[in-house]
Amino acid sequence: MLATLLPTLRELDLPLRLKLWDGKEMDIGPAPSVTLEIKDPNLVAQLAHPSLDLLGGAYVEGQIDLHGPLEEIIRIGDEITRALGDEGDSVPTREAHDKATDAEAISYHYDLSNAFYQLWLDRDMVYSCGYFETGTEDLDQAQQAKLRHLCRKLRLKPGDRLLDVGCGWGGLARFAAREYDADVFGITLSREQLKLARERVAAEGLEGQVRLELMDYRDLPQNEQFDKIVSVGMFEHVGHANLPLYCRQLASLVRPGGLVMNHGITSRYIDGRPVSHGAGEFIDRYVFPHGELPHVTEIGACISESGLEIVDVESLRLHYARTLQFWSERLEARLDEAQRMVPERALRIWRIYLAGCAYGFRRNWINLHQILASKPLPDGSHELPWSRADLYA
Ligand SMILES: C[S@@+](CC[C@H](N)C(=O)[O-])C[C@H]1O[C@@H](n2cnc3c(N)ncnc32)[C@H](O)[C@@H]1O
Predict the structure, then answer these.
(1) Which of 99, 123, 164, 188 to mutate to test the pocket of ligand 1 (most atoms within 8 A of CB)?
(2) What is the number of the ligand 1 atom nearest to the C-alpha of 230?
(3) Is the CB of 38 under 6 A from ligand 1?
(4) Could you tell me the pTM of the whole model?
(5) Phi, psi of 259 (to 5 degrees)
(6) Would the ipTM clear 0.95, i.e. be above it?
(7) Is the dihedral of CA 389, 231, 318, 95 positive or negative?
(8) Phi and psi torsions of 331, nearest 5°
(9) Rounded to an integer, what distance in angstroms lies between the CA atom of residue 120 and that of residue 89?
(10) Residue 195 has what pLDDT?
């Protein structure tokens, strides 16, 4: 098998070295920057037709090791997969999402370890795409700018009742309370997030203004009305099948004249099928089980059907590439500490996921959209200014 694989790999002219299970090493291309160490000889046959899922999975399960700069590793993995992998496009998935399955999937990802996330997220532990006003900001600045950008788009003002659906570690909730004097109700499905988020609210003395609960979006009390609703990095967990329900929830919980912001990752494919060449399968298997990315037109259609009016849409794809690059570099710089916080297998998953998603956003495999919607008043008017000028004032 190796006799067939080697010439095929050599033709790709990649800066790659192979190391075999018996210690033998060979350069596959000029000036190798990456070494692929095959530890399990049984893998060689599969490497003839690799996918990103196969390569990523083999690394996670310890069948291969990868040495070299992570960014290069991902690029070379992609090139090998494109050249030798099956052309076959991924098929759209439409999973049933019930509360129990979703709670388990959320716990798997977000309850991993607060200390681990703290290592490489910004100081407010905002776990979503940052906003780079000039492109020169560091991660903390970009996340603060993102929180401000969201609050400005929501035209948040003192006393506003804000619902934060999927509040994470409470960065936005605290920011909205502290900087805009809003009254915030946030929900998450992660117990670990909730614990630390509440501690941080208390540490800032914001308990009177910020209430956080462990709650599924389907269980939000229907007798409440909010002036503004924000959902950041959450709707990726909802699933195609439940998008209409999710949007109806948002629409029913905002008062007439109020605003809803949906910020999240979107598919590049109209039918929302997973990212091709096995990248989507890897993410589903190891990173975000049951995650599903709709196209912007699909979530847009569901928002519109719910009775909300879409008033502004912004793509921040390259902002997410940069955010993920920061996260990945920050984790790479603290691997020794990370090793003491999470099992080796998890660390391998998160390393590949962060660097791989930075690459995926850069290459336009996935996008990020902020969609602002208004619930029109009975006469059809809304409470927005005539232009976006106030966002940049
Ligand atoms: C990527 S994190 C984003 C957190 C936060 N908005 C931020 O930007 O840092 C996704 C959040 O959505 C929450 N979430 C996912 N599915 C949910 C559901 N069904 N109901 C409520 N929250 C959910 C998770 O618990 C998590 O807090």
Answers:
(1) 188
(2) 6
(3) no
(4) 0.97
(5) -125, 150
(6) yes
(7) negative
(8) -70, -45
(9) 34
(10) 98
